[in-house]
Amino acid sequence: MVLVKNETATSPTCVATMLEINIATLSGKTCLLIVFSKDQFPDVYVPTVFENYVADIEVDGKQVELALWDTAGQEDYDRLRPLSYPDTDVILMCFSVDSPDSLENIPEKWTPEVRHFCPNVPIILVGNKKDLRSDPQTLRELQKMKQEPVKFEQGKAMAEQIGATSYIECSAKTKDVCSFSFHSCKVAVKSHI
């Protein structure tokens, strides 16, 4: 899940707006943030507890500096994660297209938690790893478990079910993160700059 917070820059000559994005689910979000902020896919995965990335983007002609906060989605950190919720402007809930179980966690775990701590904050549902939807090895592995990748229509239906403002899909591996930056920033920035 991603939390977008807004802090206007303190320098009178600075025109940038700082948006903090905190991500709190599993399913490829760390790679997504690394590709988005550094334009490189990581060679090795290291589980995160709390990690910070920065990316500069332009939204509607305005320069925006994003502070991306990657927080742990594991159950061990359930008591720490809520500390990152105050002053959140937008939430991006992430799941993995190659893991139907991660989509089930959206209404069962993440939506109740977010509605409790951020009741009036808009949600964008994000399907990560969309490149694996047609990957032969992924399809074989899912077939062994009598599962299939999450279809775009299923993600869109889940977004409607949880009352999300929109549904987007991304792939860090293929560097298809444009929709990630466009939707998350546009929602937050439009209401604050």
TrEMBL record:
UniProt xrefs under SUPFAM superfamilies: P-loop containing nucleoside triphosphate hydrolases
Topology in membrane: Lipid-anchor
Biological process terms in GO annotation: actomyosin contractile ring assembly; small GTPase-mediated signal transduction
GO cellular component: cleavage furrow
Gene Ontology molecular function: any one: GTP binding
Subcellular location: Cell membrane
Pfam families per UniProt: Ras
Keywords for the protein's UniProt record, in alphabetical order: Cell membrane, GTP-binding, Lipoprotein, Membrane, Methylation, Nucleotide-binding, Prenylation
PROSITE patterns: RAB, RAS, RHO
Principal place of residence: membrane
Family per similarity comment: Belongs to the small GTPase superfamily. Rho family.
PANTHER family: RHO FAMILY GTPASE
NCBIfam families xrefs: small_GTP
UniProt-recorded name of the protein: Ras-like GTP-binding protein Rho1
Species whose genome carries this gene: Ascaris lumbricoides (Giant roundworm)
Species classification: Eukaryota, Metazoa, Ecdysozoa, Nematoda, Chromadorea
